[in-house]
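Researcher: Good morning. I'm working through a list of sequences from a screen, and I'd like to move beyond sequence-only analysis. For each chain I'm collecting a predicted structure so we can compare shapes side by side. This is the next one on the list. No need for commentary yet; just the structure.
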Amino acid sequence: MIYIVVFCVGALGMILELTGVRLMAPYFGTSFVVWTNIIGVFLGALSLGYIIGGKLGDKNQNLGGISFLMTVAGVYILVFGVFLNYIFSLIANGFSDLRVSSFIASLFIFAFPGFVFGMLVPFVIRVSLKSIKNAGVISGRLYALSTFGSIFGTFFAGFFLIPSFGTGLVFNLIGVFSIGIAVLLTLISKKKVYFMLLIFILSGVFAQNSKIKFLLEDVVYETDSLYSRLAVIRRFHKETGRPVLVLKNSRGAQSSMFLDIDNDLSAEYSKYFRLSNFFKPDIKKALMIGGGAYSYPKEFLRDNKEAFLDVVEIDPVITQIAKSHFKLEDDERLRIYHQDARLFMNANKNLYDAVFVDAYGSDFTIPFSLSTREYAGHIKKSLSEDGVVVTNVISSLSGEGSTILEAVYSTYKSVFPHVLVFAVSDNPPGEIQNVILVSFKSEGTPIAEDPGGVYGQYSSRRIIYEVDPGLVLTDDFAPVEYLTRMF
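Model: Good morning. Structure tokens for this chain:
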């Protein structure tokens, strides 16, 4: 039974870490900064637990104390799940620096449970030792079991638990099974377990009937996939007041659709993808990186009756949601590839007249592998001779928040002969907004005036944007999380 306990605690620790990442994502994202804090806090809590657990084991080999702490840890997880939204909202709104806010949130969710889980192994080792002669064998065996449990928990949570049951229920079950381990420890110590069993049963009932909401909004549908925690949310458009349906992953709105008129794009920046039809009027085949709710792909197919569109969307669950909630229909002119966009571009042999790039991980962060000069080079090779690339960048035009725009612009300029910049909104230059880059494979750029057409509609947003040769992002060095930290 000791071996079972050690294995299970190892598994619970990794399940807690993976589940906690999903719970934090709607408020803090899942960028490199967030992962750094999560791993650092969790390992720090385990380390402190190892120290204290060893000391307690030397003083008293009674399993009742560690059993009590496991019960408290389980109850803490269950209670924290009830107030999670409120606590994380306060932290996210109270600290503008993501490094600080995600660190504090990591302390709340990982510090105490991680500390208790860390205490158990050295404590159990001390209890199990009958002679100093076999100390190495027993400690090695129990630490190996704990590590095997962690490996099992990683794969079990990532490939089965979270995609099958959702983050909220899994988080609650961690609390329940922590109390269950306390019951096992009480049995091992040959104490009466009636009270412990009662707590275990009550916690199971509580977990089954409680639900951790994705966000404090009108959630129509929510689920977990292998890649993200997703929610479909009903709200009203800020400018027009019209009802919209929004697909969210992590912190930001990923894509949206008006509920009253499906033919109109609700996200202003996505309308700038229409510039492709001005710069390349005879589009026959196009590629979109990042499907989202497929709002623009649907419009592209409606407006380009003879054209074909390939969409690379890494998450098949997002495509399923687009079909069930955002009116995406099967079309012989639409091909969807569920794979990593960088891997797709590395192996691509097709030529496209237009490429639309709108892929974001979380917290306004472009996945670093989709921001580099090498990746832009793959896109250029995939373009027809007069093809264009339309890229969405979230940044300010100047000031501290413009570092990511300067880097992406410099990177594209190192590959493409011409890059035009369009500011989507009329916000002050120092404020964060969507900025559209249009890059050309050919030396010439068709900038003829088009007052009554697509270009005339958006030309007033075109800005003369040149920066000194700055940071060019490469596969070796692309600190996109650092460049977006001012957001």
